[in-house]
Amino acid sequence: MSAFAHPSVPALLRRHPDRPWVDRTWRRWTAAWLGGTALAIANGVVREVGYAGRVGDLAAHQISTATFLALFAAYFAALEHRWPIATTRRAVEIGATWVVLTVGFEFGFGHWVDGKSWAELLENYDLTSGHLFLLVLLWVGIGPAVVRALRRA
Questions:
Q1: Residue 49: which domain range?
Q2: Burial class (CB in 10 A: 0-12, 13-18, 19+), 103
Q3: pLDDT digits over 65-100, tens only?
Q4: pLDDT (tens digit, 9 = 90+) per residue, 112-138?
Q5: Would 120 disulfide with which of 57, 109, 116, 147, CB 3.0-4.6 Å?
Q6: Residue 37 falls within a domain, yes or no?
Q7: Is residue 138 part of a domain?
């Protein structure tokens, strides 16, 4: 009997094939989220150093959202090529994991490291004011499933 199948191990931690963390691809894609944060930070640095002063803060955020979506499309395609996702369900689970990690990072880093208020951070989610961060979360959530579907088409 494996250590994970032992009755003393809580049911949540026992190995079940339907649990995402049992799947090697899910674990690899989850670890690859760290590479995504590096891309996002680099994108933000280019925005602040390169063009934010010339186009203004809101326009800079909108431009960097577009470049973020393009960068992540390429990143997702590279990850799907390297570690193909077996099922649409697993792709959705990977996307959901990335959304949770992204929101946690955005609020944790933004508040405790960057010193932004909670109101400032929530402002990024207000589409009516021109802030497009919800599009980032949408793409991060569905991107793995989209690139999986495109690869199989």
A1: 24-152
A2: middle
A3: 999 999 999 999 999 999 999 999 999 999 999 999
A4: 767 778 788 888 888 999 999 999 999
A5: 116
A6: yes
A7: yes
Residue with tokens 């980032």: 136
Answer whether residue 15 is part of any domain: no
Structure tokens at 106: 């955005």
**What is the Cα gyration radius of the chain?**
18
Asked whether 71 and 143 are in contact (CB, 8 A), the reply is no
Cβ burial 6-27 (10 Å sphere, 16+ → b, else e): eeeeeeeeeeeeeebeebebbe
Instruction: Give how many domains the chain has, as a whole number.
Output: 1
Kindly report the average pLDDT of the chain as a whole number.
Answer: 87
What is the pLDDT at residue 42? 96
Is 33 within a domain? yes
- Rounded mean pLDDT of 27-42? 95
Q: What is the DSSP letter of 127?
A: G
Q: In terms of Cα–Cα distance, which of 68, 100, 79, 89 is closest to 145?
A: 89
- Distances 42 to 20, 52, 152 between C-alpha atoms, Å: 29, 14, 31
